[in-house]
Structures
1.
Amino acid sequence: MRTERRRSGYVLLAVLAVLVLMVTVLATLSKLSLRRALAAADAQVRLQQRLGAESIERVLLPQAGRVFDQREEQADAIQKSTGTASPFPRQIRGAVTIGGVTFDVVLADEDAKLNLNQVYHMTGRRRTETTLGEVLGPVAARAVRLLPATRPMTAALMESAAEGGSDDESDQTMTEIPRAFRSWGEVFDLSRLSASLGSDAALPSVSGEITCWGGGGLNLRRASETSIRAAAGCVLSDAGARRLASRYKDNPVTSLAILVQQEAKTETERLRLLRMLSETSTHFSLWIDASAVARGSMRTFSVMRTTDDGLAINERFSF
């Protein structure tokens, strides 16, 4: 009897051991299956984010020039009918949800922003930092960390290069300069910027007045008074820059040529102002923030510029 009881006990222990092993195996398989399911779901969401962002970019960015031209026409019509100038929207924001993914988009005119490359080559690094502080404000300015790819050209060298390339004045003012800043990582400490402003999506808002991708001069017709004053301040005294911005604000139908002629005291100042300011836009950008519930966001920044030959050139960055 004792032998049978011992055998029964051994059998029971063996059964329990097998059950424990089976439960452990099943739990492990369940965890693996769950991980694979979550990974597959995450991969599907990331694919939706990427394909959705690419589709939105293909549709919106090529139409940006037309969209902002229409906005400018509407602003001009309002001014003619009311006698009051309405501020030009340098950025157009919107959102759309597709398949559980929300795409927040910001379409912008890059030539309506202060061109940091022009500022840097016209005034040097230290003055560029000062200008950024004036335009951005003290909080965002603390995250400025300039890492220029080239040394600054002096204004005299810029003019010499332009004169050597063409006798046409318009060509001289628009001669392309080396790009010292080619991405936001060469302008800001991005981690510090997010920490200072309390958001990892701070960059689209901070870059509303500044650009590394403008075509050259700031589009006077679409820029803010702050940006106009900063651009003019690269050539004129602070008082002169404020006076130029105020004159344009008081009479926004004034042409750039007349405005510059009124303020420039010398031919050198006139040419430099024509380099810093313009009346056209050929560079446009698109921020896309693709987010999903319980998933990370995918943020991209795309810039399109149109050459004189009508060729569209795109750049894209991921953040």
Note: The chain has one domain: 50-318.
2.
Amino acid sequence: MFKKLSAFIVMLCMIFCFTACENNESFEEKGDYLTGNSWEGTDGSLIDLETDGTYKFYRSSADKTNNYYSGTFEVLNGQTAVDYIVEEYGFSEEAQRTVMEKYRVEDQYYYVLVLNQNECIVDGQNTLSEPTKTEYFGYYAISDEHLNFTSLKTMGQMDFYKK
């Protein structure tokens, strides 16, 4: 009886371990170096990209109580990012690949970050009348944990470093 009970407990432990390992793949192992991190901009701003798919984009990393956008986000990389830009903005794949080659950006480090803004807090009040979407494209430099993004709305460039 004791052997059967011990074998059953060992079997349950093995099942638990295997299923836990199967579903516990980190975002980085999936090629997403953005999610689950905070990114400080060279302009003093800060983006917190949470693992649950929510974010806050603060005007100043020194003040996390006011002057920020929040909502949900989506991270696309590689061919998926290229296809998204082709479909949404009409930038050809060839043009994107030319830029990627020029800056020596490998597919896996080429990103689109879609921010779905649900609120904009200014002076403690939500000033956003309806949800909006802002998209960025660019690359992640793994060597210095640096993001270089360009706004697809304004074409303004932004640099962020992993905090």
Note: The domain at 28-162 is CATH 2.40.128 (Lipocalin).
3.
Amino acid sequence: MTLSHKFVQNIPEHLDDGVIYVSIEYATAIHKCCCGCGNEVVTPFSPTDWELIFNGEAISLYPSIGNWNFKCQSHYWITNDAVEWAPKWSKRQIEEGNKRDQKVKGAYYRKDKGRKSLLDFLKIRF
């Protein structure tokens, strides 16, 4: 299965099948689940969520998309606009993956707490 991508400022109210909408301004992409169930899949871009790669012709998202909260529980990669199906995860794998994601987010956001802004640095120095 191949998707087409559209760069948009705002996400449209109606999503077309087989289209992934990318909003750089809002750092997110959205598409209908590739299994055909019709659920909307939102993939926010951040250091702890998804990474968007645009090579000038096609897009890729990293990591894989696991729709664990949907009845379908579909799991796939989007690479160069192509959907590559991934193995279904067990309940245990999903739980472990969620814990790992929470741990990564916690570590990422904790590291910023100790940083001082340039203004704080200047106040200390002068």
Note: The helical segments are 91-113, 118-125.
4.
Amino acid sequence: MSEIQKYASREAAGELLADKIQELHLEKPYLLAIPRGGIQVAKAVADRLKIPINPLVVKKLPAPGNPEYGFGAITEDGTKILNEDAVDYLHLSPKIIEDISQKVISEIQHRKEYYGGLHDEKIHTSDVIIVDDGVATGYSLIAGIMTVQKRDPKSLWVAVPVSSENAYLKIKQIVKNVICPIVNGEYFFAVASYYKEWYDLQEEEIKRILEDYRAKYSD
């Protein structure tokens, strides 16, 4: 396999996205970022457009007994998308899916209370940009997109530094406006491999970033 293009960091990837978003000349767009890594990517966009960062909280639905394996994703309002192949493989009944979904929604609510959530009235009247640090399967991002679409934004843009080709094509089916500089069709795809610097953000760091940007750019 040829050597892949890499970003120096999430912040550097955000600078490239900010260049492309600035060319759109959107007036005071509403910026949503998916924690955790999407928050770091969104910093450059927020600074360029002088707007705060708002968290779009999405969590994967963990398989029973194997929480690292997800069978879909869900958002704070219960919007979810399932990986039907995984559901079949795991033999998950509707009741099990619902029980897991309710538990994850509770976790999302706790996280939302910790660092804030959606402002429906602003989404409805704004051009909305959703940012993440990359897309592998697409389930989390698609669940987030569907949640925002329910709130009928003025327009919706998705901006990610890198995506698998499969996920990119799925996203393009539901959102017309997608900014993604790197789309890779390799079978084995990992977002982390497209960054020279990669680490998991802690909740405290996410909260600090969000608070800093609210203080800098709140109306």
Note: The first strand starts at residue 30 and ends at 33.
